[in-house]
Every structure is written in C-alpha cells, then in structure tokens.
Amino acid sequence: MKTDIQLQRDVMDELARDTNIHANDIGVEVRDGIVTLSGDVGSFLEKCEAERVASRVAGARAIVVSLEVKPTNHDRQTDADIARAALAILKWHAGLPPEGMHVKVENSWVTLEGTAPMYTQRLLAENAVRALRGVKGVINDIKVEGSPHRREIVGHIAAALSRQAQREASHLEISLLGNGEVLLTGTVHSLAEKEAIRGAAMSTHGVSAVVDRLQVE
C-alpha cells in the first residue's frame, strides 16, 4: 500500500506529464489516501483534466478539487459571448439532438437545460460546453427521456461492467430506482476501477442518472 508521500509524488508526476495542465500552478496534498488539488487554473477544461488525471492514479481513495478557474485576459468572455458559443457548439456537435436543449449563462457559469434521449448525449453536451473559452463551470440539468425495463437495463450494465472494468458483475450490486436511475453499491480496488464502472453504467441505453455508492478498498 502506498504511503501518502508516495501517492503525492505519483499524482504530481502524472499532472506534470499532461501537456494540457500547468502542473506548477497546482498544489497537491495527500492525507490518508485523500488527494486535494489546490491553486488556480486557466480554464474549466484544465480543472476537469486535473481531476481526471489525479483520479486515475493508483492508491487515490478520493479527490478533493479546490481549484479556482481564472481565465487569462485573452480567454475572458462576456456571458453573451459564452451563450452564443454554447448554442453554436450544441447545434453542430455530432451526436446531440438538434432541439430540446437550452442554455443559461451567469457569471461565466453555464447551465444546460432540456431533454435528451440518452445519458451519453447529456454528457456530450456538457463536455462540448466545458471546453469553451471563458467558461468557469457547467451545471448540467438536462433530463434523459425514456423508462427502460429493469431486466434490460441491469443486463446491459452487467455486460458493460464485465467488459470495461474486467470484473465480474456479481461482485457489485446494481439496483434500478425508477425513472431510469441506477444505484451502484459494493467495493472496488481503485478510483480508476470506480470510474470505469460508472462509465459503463452511464453509457447504457435508458439510464437517466447514476447514484454512485461504490467504496474504494
């Protein structure tokens, strides 16, 4: 088992290897396997990337993100500029429904509203907008339509978990809460495995939300 000092060094090394992250501006603190990232970053996309990179480091039990987005003068945009850019990218982005999505922008925070037929399209919309210049954060209030049968959705998730997480689905508890919401419980070996399991559940047709209660051993 890694010590906190070893884990801190590994996280810092991973951040430094990513060319999309200004690692020198990010502080890394580790206590009892819990990694805290602090400092300023130039974009919301960089903030998300730093969290993703830290999460995949073996031994990390949880990630606390205390990063503040401070766009450079070149990247600063008005709320109106951000709204126009968000509407344009949602309109032309492949895989997204052409209608049914709405955008609100306040203090550089983007709120997405409306409906989508699949959870993956909900995520596509968020990922498309988070990369826009000047965005400090994204609130995703897009609702997923549809109400799948329990046997179908549990079967799809179990198959996806076996493929993506390389772990027998029987080691996990999968419950359908209603309206397409899925509850995941059980234990996993790492945050990376936890993310793989969540990703498998989210990519299953008919899933509207995932309640993640997986614990890292």
UniProtKB/TrEMBL annotation:
InterPro entries: BON_dom (IPR007055), Lipoprotein_DolP (IPR051686), Transpt-assoc_nodulatn_dom_bac (IPR014004). It holds the Pfam family BON. Residues 3-71, 78-146, 149-217 form the BON domain. Coiled coil: none annotated. SMART domains: BON. This is Osmotically-inducible protein Y. It comes from Pandoraea commovens.
